[in-house]
Amino acid sequence: MAGLSLKNINKIYDNNVQAVFDCNVEIDDGEFVVLVGPSGCGKSTTLRMIAGLEDITSGQLIIGDKDMTQVAPKDRDIAMVFQNYALYAHLTVYHNMAFSLVLRHEKPEVIHEKVMYAARVLELESQLNKKPKELSGGQRQRVAVGRAIVRDPKVFLFDEPLSNLDAKLRSSMRRELKLLHMQLGTTIVYVTHDQTEALTLADKIVCMSDGRIQQIGKPIELYDNPNNLFVASFIGLPPMNFFDVKVDGDKLVSNDLEYKLNDAEKTLLANYQGKDIVLGVRPEDVNIGDEFKFKVLINENLGMNTLVHGYIGKKKVVSKINEWCEYKLGDEISVTFDRNKVHFFDKETTNAIR
Ligand code: ADP
Question: In CATH, what number does 4-234 get?
Answer without folding.
Answer: 3.40.50.300
